[in-house]
Specification:
The structure is a single chain. The protein has 2 domains: 3-76 and 110-162, Butyryl-CoA Dehydrogenase, subunit A, domain 3 (Up-down Bundle), CATH 1.20.140; 172-293, Roll (Nuclear Transport Factor 2, Chain: A), CATH 3.10.450.50. 52% of the residues lie in helices and 16% in strands. The chain contains 13 helices and 7 strands. A hairpin with a 5-residue loop joins strand 5 and strand 6. Helix 3 packs antiparallel against helix 6 (121-132), helix 3 (54-76) runs parallel beside helix 7 and helix 6 crosses helix 8. It is elongated and about 65 Å long.
Length: 296
């Protein structure tokens, strides 16, 4: 085995971890894969003779690459940041497979990713590296170009924001019951039943991308969201069940078999506190979606 083969083998043992780091940083599966690939390129060209902990070295490289990608994204986005819905990780209703579980780790719903997306790039990198992956602030500091104390402050500010993210109920069957009741009420156009399952402060985020600008919005409050949900009838009638980042949701389909939208619902305290809808055709086309494979 050559030195390069040995290095490639060690890189592969860390690929799932690195992809999980990048996905939390970026909320994009394709960009996460790009960041991991860039880490491999840098590793293959680097002198690693003095690297004692390759996993830690690669983690910081992915952090640095992700930070650059986040900064670049901020300069080119046309839509407000709070209308961006992260790439969903799709699983059948039966459950999340081991590879997806490694990517998601602890609860990482789209609602939490939406909160992470409101952080500035340095805050997000500092928080994810330290609070999720236990990287010391002394190692984070050079990545974000700050002192160790300043990196600590970045993570602290981010932590306060993240603590406000909704935490889904642990009873999956109970969550499904609430989601099913919501979709049934939407199908029937029953405003009062919709209000009954919505938290008073529910937030609905819809991301239709540049192709569907009419579906780019953020709605807040039960009455506003219930009014909008009255137009969900087509979604509710064609939706197939799926776990979206480990929480209940579904996929709505067009008559020709293409996905119209992916919907993720966060249920906390027995009510819906967050609804995230990805309806961007370009991004949907890159997801592994097949109506034949979805649960009916």
């Amino acid at each position: 085995m050559t030195d390069q083969d040995w290095l490639a083998q060690r890189f592969e043992t860390n690929r799932a971890h690195l992809r999980a780091v990048a996905y939390r940083m970026l909320g994009s599966l394709s960009e996460a894969d790009d960041a991991v690939q860039e880490a491999w390129i840098r590793l293959s060209r680097a002198d690693t003779t003095d690297v004692e902990n390759l996993r830690a070295w690669l983690t910081t490289v992915v952090g640095r690459v992700s930070l650059n990608m986040l900064r670049s994204r901020r300069t080119r986005r046309e839509a407000p940041l709070d209308t961006y819905v992260a790439d969903p990780i799709m699983s059948p209703e039966a459950g999340v497979d081991p590879e997806q579980e490694a990517l998601l780790g602890d609860s990482l719903g789209l609602a939490l990713l939406a909160v992470l997306d409101t952080l500035n790039p340095a805050e997000r990198v500092a928080f994810v590296l330290h609070d999720v992956f236990a990287v010391p602030f002394d190692e984070i500091a050079p990545i974000v170009g700050r002192s160790s104390a300043a990196a600590r402050q970045l993570a602290s500010r981010a932590r306060r924001r993240v603590q406000g993210a909704p935490v889904p109920d642990t009873d999956l069957d109970g969550q499904w019951a609430v989601v099913d009741a919501f979709l049934a009420a939407a199908r029937d156009g029953d405003f009062e039943r919709l209000l009954a399952v919505l938290d008073p402060d529910v937030v609905l985020r819809s991301d239709g991308g540049s192709t569907r600008p009419d579906l780019v919005s953020v709605l807040r409050g039960a009455e506003v969201v219930a009014t909008s949900a009255m137009s969900f009838r087509r979604f509710a009638e064609t939706a197939t069940r799926a776990l979206i980042n480990g929480t209940p949701g579904g996929v709505a389909w067009l008559p020709d078999g293409r996905p119209f939208a992916v919907l993720s619902v966060t249920v906390a305290g027995g009510r819906i506190v967050s609804i995230d809808i990805l309806a961007d055709p370009d991004r949907l086309s890159r997801l592994d979606l097949d109506p034949a494979s979805q649960d009916q």
